[in-house]
């Protein structure tokens, strides 16, 4: 299983862009990179998934360099409601998700 | 989008009681579902993989006789915490994904279990 490292916490202000980088040095060829958001007392919510290069949806972008050993979740213009824990996961063929500690993002007004 | 429903959202009961939690995939079929436990301020810990029509696969350290899992149909998995004790109090969450490769997991909203 890929060992995943991401910052424990980050602070930002409303309207700023937030970039959360995740390290997954021994990612396997068939693995995908997936990010989830979790609010207190709720289940994680899927944000974005990618394999390589750049993926963008209505809420975020995911940047993956050519070696795929890291990835960066980019949240444009965060608001107070983006305060949450963000998990980076590497998902292989079994679909089993192993959660790390996540990054606790605090957005200030 | 894929929706996973979990019920009940909160349970408070006495020590020794058995508690059943349901996890349903509302608009897709799921051969496999997953059960997690989360303690306050901690990450999700995978407890077991629920397999439709066969026995669940438990992670190391999780007692299969304590946490009974049944996956009787392609849209329903249940987790029964048997003879619950205060140390079983936690936030239990299930997930599922459509049976197509590389589909992201979708999570239920969790069940807050409090054992008095």
- Secondary-structure element string of chain B: EEEEEEEEEEE
Arrangement of strands in the largest sheet of chain A = 1-9-8-3-4
| DSSP summary: helix tally of chain B | 0
Strand fraction of chain B:
over 45%
- Helix tally of chain A equals 0
- Overall structural class of chain A, as computed from helix and strand content, comes to mainly beta
Radius of gyration of chain B (CA) equals 13 Å
Q: What percent of residues of chain A adopt helix (DSSP H or I)? A: under 10%
Task: State the main characteristics.
heterodimer; A: 109 residues; mainly beta; five-stranded mixed beta sheet; four-stranded antiparallel beta sheet; 48% strand; B: 116 residues; seven-stranded mixed beta sheet; 0% helix
Walk me through the structure.
The complex is a heterodimer of chains A (109) and B (116). With 109 residues, chain A is mostly beta strands. Chain A is globular and about 40 Å long. Chain A contains no helices and nine strands. In chain A, a hairpin with a 5-residue loop joins strand 6 and strand 7 (70-75). Chain B is built from no helices and eleven strands. In chain B, strand 4 and strand 5 (45-51) form a beta hairpin. Classes of the chains: A mainly beta (109), B mainly beta (116).
Question: SSE layout and pairings?
Answer:
The complex is a heterodimer of chains A (109) and B (116).
Chain A: E1 9-13, E2 18-23, E3 32-38, E4 45-50, E5 53-56, E6 61-64, E7 70-75, E8 84-91, E9 103-108
Parallel strand pairs in A: 1-9
Antiparallel strand pairs in A: 2-7, 3-4, 3-8, 5-6, 6-7, 8-9
Chain B: E1 4-7, E2 10-13, E3 19-25, E4 32-38, E5 45-51, E6 57-58, E7 67-73, E8 76-81, E9 90-96, E10 106-107, E11 111-115
Parallel strand pairs in B: 2-11
Antiparallel strand pairs in B: 1-3, 3-8, 4-5, 4-9, 5-6, 7-8, 9-10, 9-11
């Amino acid at each position: 299983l890929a060992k995943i490292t991401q910052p424990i916490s980050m602070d930002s202000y409303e309207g700023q862009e937030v970039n959360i980088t995740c390290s997954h040095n021994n990612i396997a060829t068939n693995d995908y990179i997936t990010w989830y958001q979790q609010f207190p007392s709720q289940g994680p919510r899927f944000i974005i998934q990618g394999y390589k290069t750049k993926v963008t949806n209505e809420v975020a972008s995911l940047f993956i360099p050519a070696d795929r050993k890291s990835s960066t979740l980019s949240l444009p213009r965060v608001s107070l409601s983006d305060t949450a824990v963000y998990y980076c996961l590497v998902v292989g063929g079994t679909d089993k998700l192993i959660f790390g500690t996540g990054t606790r993002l605090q957005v200030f007004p | 989008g894929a929706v996973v429903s979990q019920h009940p959202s909160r349970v408070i009961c006495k020590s020794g009681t058995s508690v059943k939690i349901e996890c349903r995939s509302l608009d897709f079929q799921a051969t496999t579902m997953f059960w997690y436990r989360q303690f306050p301020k901690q990450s999700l810990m995978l407890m077991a993989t629920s397999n439709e029509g066969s026995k669940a696969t438990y992670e190391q350290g999780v007692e299969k006789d304590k946490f009974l899992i049944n996956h009787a149909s392609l849209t329903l998995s249940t987790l029964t915490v048997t003879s619950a004790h205060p140390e079983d109090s936690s936030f239990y969450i299930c997930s599922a994904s459509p049976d197509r490769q590389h589909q992201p997991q979708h999570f239920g909203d969790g069940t807050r279990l409090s054992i008095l």
